[in-house]
Amino acid sequence: MKVYVDADACPVKDIIIKEAGNHNISVTLVTSLSHYSLHEHPSHVETIYVDTGADAADYRIMQLARKGDIIVTQDYGLASLALAKGCYVLHHKGFAYTNHNIDQLLQSRYLSAKERKSGKRTKGPKALTEEDRMNFNQLFLQYITK
């Protein structure tokens, strides 16, 4: 099992790196070149930089991931592809994407995009709370200890 992180905007990288390290699981952070950093991570963490194109990180993650791997993303499209590949997919707010909830999430995203195109304003995502971080930590531990 490996963990792949859609890392450009992932606010729980610290939790993933710490907990995966505690369980000897390797982590791959996939991020765009525009987020390049000299920050050094522990030896179980690899960073892969991709072009700044809209879905470049998603494509690379799907190239690398195998059935049974864990993917952390907030991107519903990537989550849908990863589920079809047999991966476990987690959101940083502490819920798992499943074959039962992905259609509703994609539909919600589509309707919001449709409203924005027609000129309506939609609310953005709520700020990450400490409770969200705790929920993610618990969920992540459940998946890496399966």
- Helix-strand pattern, N to C? EHEEHEHEEHH
* Overall average residue pLDDT: 91
In whole angstroms, how far apart are the ends?
10 Å
**Percent helix range:** 40-55%
Q: Strand tally, please?
A: 6
Please identify the structural class as seen in this structure: alpha/beta
Please identify, by name, the CATH architecture: 3-Layer(aba) Sandwich
Physical arrangement of strands within the biggest beta sheet: 3-2-1-4-5-6
- Pick out the low-confidence regions: none
**Number of self-contained structural domains:** 1
Biggest beta-sheet profile: 6 strands, mixed
CATH level-3 fold name: Rossmann fold
Question: Strand portion, in percent?
Answer: 15-25%
Fold blueprint:
Layout (H helix, E strand, L loop, with lengths): L1 E5 L6 H10 L3 E7 L12 E6 L5 H9 L5 E3 L3 H9 L3 E4 L3 E3 L4 H16 L12 H15 L2
Helix pairs in contact: 1-5, 3-4
Q: How would you describe this structure to a colleague?
A:
With 146 residues, the protein is α/β, with parallel strands linked by helices. The protein has a single domain, classed as Rossmann fold (3-Layer(aba) Sandwich). The protein contains five helices and six strands, in the order βαββαβαββαα. Strands 3-2-1-4-5-6 form a six-stranded mixed β-sheet, sandwiched between helices. A hairpin with a 3-residue loop joins strand 5 and strand 6. It is globular and about 50 Å long. The termini are close together.
